[in-house]
Write a structure and sequence with these properties.
The complex is a heterodimer. Among the domains of chain A are: about 130 residues, 3-Layer(aba) Sandwich (Glutaredoxin); about 140 residues, Glycosyltransferase. Helices cover about 45% and strands about 10% of the residues of chain A. Chain A is built from 18 helices and twelve strands. In chain A, helix 3 packs parallel to helix 5, helix 8 runs parallel beside helix 10 and helix 10 packs antiparallel against helix 11. Chain B is α+β, with helices and mostly antiparallel strands. Chain B has a single domain, classed as Glutaredoxin (3-Layer(aba) Sandwich), CATH 3.40.30. Chain B is about 35% helix and about 25% strand. The chains are: A alpha+beta, B alpha+beta. Chains A and B meet through helix 7, helix 8, helix 10, helix 14 and helix 16 of A and helix 1, helix 2 and strand 2 of B.
Chain lengths: ~450, ~80
């Protein structure tokens, strides 16, 4: 269990068949807490709601509390996300959803506990339902038409914020893959967005990119730094430099490389993320030197290391930067250590603990890194085995891909066909990280 | 399908009109390094490829040969045409 669990008074269990079996035997609902190590509101809920003795006693008594790290368990995240983290979800022992919410303070939590108890006592297993995206999981399919690209260009034009750069007029996410698409199709949108990210979302003191800005004008950043997002931005800035020759973009990419290879380097691989504790970031630069920086989650996630290797190789390809190449090679070593002989990629490693093998996000990101390695270094390593495994095990008849193996507790045995693993976890406009599986909500695109 | 999944549209575009710069020289050679810098980011670069003559590069657009180059300047002309 993560270090923050100890701040609560709840007797958490690990995600697994045992927790659901216990719930079934005891006739109790499961309380599923979805959290992330970088998530400040998750820590807040640990320190307040879950530390409140009467609430904790109520939970320990009447529920089977299960705590899940969403970075380690993306299949659980994508099936139960209530629109942000923390997600607080109540399940039947069969894994169907009774109800859920995101952050809950003491009063809100007390109310929902009572409501869930009444529903459960009244309806039992009937109280649960399967989120729509899982209930009618018709995989997407069909021919690839030229309309897709044209449609997306129209979307860019419609969503672009002419006043402040970036897309949308609410919260601002950097959307590095969208920037790359725009670089060759709507150059001005791409460069103005890079400029906004460069000036508003970079940590000028410690380096690295904050996750998103809460306001349309790119102010009020949410300051957690995720390795995969940082890597994707390094690559976007490198490509931006390739197209414009703008030195500021190269400099921003180089500073991103600095951050990844120092603060987020564990000694043998890239760590997963760094928290965004606001108190630290409000300190003056001189005070920061004496303060403890927000904690780094040094879980070695295959997909994060893959995207970091991909980004560093891109920088090396454009600049011959030796350090970027060296760290890319080390990240590739770490990644290869997580690729099984049959081509399945192990999602993460933390000491002796390892994650599920064969998740779509890990397979796809590993392929990004290995094919880039093939182009830049001339060695694609186990790319073919990884691709074959992905095709053989995750592809449905329609051609669409499942997000992972179709087994596991809860609703993990129900297939999910994401359009883009990275997109499905994207935050909702309210600024919380979230997917589209809210009950009764729209299915993912 | 909103702008958050522009990456999907990029992948579709690349699949419908794949562009490859095949380089018959090892990774790290001048011609290969030039190809990495000159090819746009949706074009694949393949070092040590046996399709072009030794020491040369070949642009392959949707499976068809679309021009060759035997040094970085001629590759630049080919890719910026």
């Amino acid at each position: 269990m993560d270090e923050f669990a100890a701040e609560t008074k709840v007797e958490w269990r690990e995600w697994g068949p045992e927790a659901f079996a216990t719930a079934g035997r005891a006739g109790k609902p499961v309380l599923l807490a979805l959290r992330a190590s970088w998530c400040e509101e998750c820590h807040e809920m640990d320190r307040t709601t879950y530390a409140e003795p009467r609430i904790a006693a109520n939970v320990n008594d009447g529920f089977v509390p299960v705590r899940v790290d969403v970075d380690r368990h993306p299949r659980v995240r994508d099936r139960y996300n209530m629109g942000g983290f923390p997600s607080t979800v109540f399940l039947t022992p069969e894994g169907t959803v009774i109800t859920g919410a995101t952050f809950l303070g003491v009063d809100g939590f007390r109310e929902i506990l009572d409501a869930v108890r009444r529903t459960w006592d009244g309806s039992g297993l009937e109280a649960g339902s399967v989120p729509r995206a899982l209930a009618d999981a018709d995989p997407p399919g069909g021919a690839l038409s030229a309309r897709v690209e044209g449609h997306m260009v129209e979307q860019l034009l419609a969503a672009y914020d002419d006043e402040f750069g970036g897309w949308g007029t609410d919260v601002k996410f950097p959307l590095p893959r969208t920037v790359e698409f725009a670089l060759v199709r709507a150059r001005d949108q791409a460069t103005r967005t890079l400029e906004a990210v460069r000036t508003r979302l970079t940590d000028t003191h410690d380096g690295g990119f904050y996750r998103f800005a809460r306001n349309r004008d790119w102010s009020d950043p949410s300051r957690e730094k995720l390795t995969d997002e940082n890597a994707a931005l390094v690559r976007a800035f490198a490509h931006g430099y390739r197209y414009t020759g703008e030195e500021a973009y190269l400099d921003t990419a180089a500073r991103g490389v600095d951050y990844l290879t120092t603060d987020l380097w564990t000694g043998e691989a890239f760590a997963a993320s760094q928290g965004g504790a606001d108190a630290y970031y409000r300190l003056a630069a001189t005070e920061r030197a004496d303060a403890d920086p927000p904690s780094v989650d040094d879980t070695v996630v295959a997909g994060h290391n893959a995207l970091a290797a991909d980004a560093l190789l891109t920088v090396a390809a454009y600049t011959d930067d030796e350090r970027a190449r060296r760290y890319a090679e080390r990240a590739l070593d770490a990644l290869r250590g997580l690729v099984r002989e049959d081509g399945a990629v192990v999602h993460y490693r933390d000491g002796d603990e390892t994650g599920t093998a064969g998740l779509l996000v890990a397979q796809a990101r590993a392929l990004v890194a290995l094919t880039t390695a093939g182009q830049v270094l001339g060695d694609a390593g186990p790319a073919r085995a990884v691709a074959d495994y992905t095709l053989d095990t995750l592809r449905a008849e329609s051609g669409a891909f499942r997000d992972g193996p179709t087994d596991g507790p809860g609703l993990c045995d129900r297939p999910l066909y994401p359009l883009d693993g990275g997109v499905r976890g994207r935050d909702r406009p309210d600024g919380r990280r979230g997917g589209s599986l809210r009950r009764g909500g729209r299915a993912p695109a | 399908m909103g702008v958050e999944v522009a990456h999907y549209a990029a992948a579709v575009a690349r699949l419908r009109d794949p562009r490859v710069v095949a380089v018959a020289a090892p990774a790290g050679s001048d011609l290969h390094r030039a190809a990495l810098r000159l090819a746009d980011h949706e074009t694949a670069v393949v070092p040590r490829d046996d399709r072009p003559p030794d020491g040369e590069a070949l642009l392959i657009a949707d499976g068809d040969q679309a021009g060759g180059a035997d040094d970085p300047p001629s590759l630049e002309r080919l890719l910026t045409d």
